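Problem 12. The chain below contains 344 residues. Write out its predicted structure in token notation.
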Amino acid sequence: MKSKLNVLLAFSLLLTLTPALLAAEAPKYQVTGHFAVTGEGGWDYLSLDADGARLFISRGTHVQVVDTATGKLLGDIPDTLGVHGIAVASDLGVGVTSNGKAGSLTVFDLASLKKTGEVKAGTKPDAIIYDPFTRHVFAFNGNSHDATVVDPAKATAVATIALDGAPEFAASDREGHVFVNLEDKNEIAEIDAQKNTVLAHWPLTGCDGPSGLAIDRKNHRLFSVCSNQVMTVLDGVSGKLVATVPIGKRPDAAAFDPETRLAFSSNGDGTLTVVHQDSADKYTVVQTVATAMGARTLALDPKSHRIYLVTAKFGAAPAATAEQPHGRPAMVPGSFEMLVLEAR
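Solution.
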């Protein structure tokens, strides 16, 4: 009887320690490269091509294409006024940009980077993703509270989906569903990507102002990063909240690496929060990596596990005026850079 009790106690202790042991063995990230990137303008979302060799960077009125190994500028996609994001459809050989101020989407050839078409969107298209399941691009319009669905191969719009809120970033399960954060509602909307209809709205309890969104497709988990310094984890089938973990200030992007089982939040306060998936419903913050102030958007290469961030230095904030009570400081010319983080 005593031996059985000892076995049970040992097994119970193993179950208790296993998540901590797994988290302790998670790879540790560090900044391994700083590359100056020429050109002016602000920035928003980042995207990688299929082999991780090129990083697409939105720069306000154009998109820069940068060699991830050297930081060298490989090309530029002009005339994308107010560009926010870039959807890369590698299997179709095209990309699509969301031009917030122009209210349009630019379709371009991935090889030549030449424009091949333009599609009218809603008001202020912002986040944009490619869904390989339907081979459609979903562009989310922040001010008109809807999504423009595009066939990128034909450079034509195929549908408009009304959303009950202001959409932020989105993710696809590649099985016929697209999920999008609704920033003003603190919700996730589930979209039927084949019928182009909204299936459900799920509350993000404990989350204020969700922005970045990532997905674990194997376990059907959705990771939303929120302005009140939390990452929420939702069940992507039931919509149930399964976990909440602390992150840094001013997050704007999220990613999940299925091989290492790590989720990431890039934060404008100059940190990257690294969260280990101990199990589908249990999560542990394993690292807070010092990056650089303003490095709030990221791109993850799931093959190399490298993470790319961009940022710049800024001068002093201008004096407040009646017209501009919260004036933004000017970017220091020539200070824009790409950061590379690697796991060791």
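Discussion. The chain has one domain: 43-316+326-343. Students who got a different answer should revisit the alignment rule from Section 12.3.
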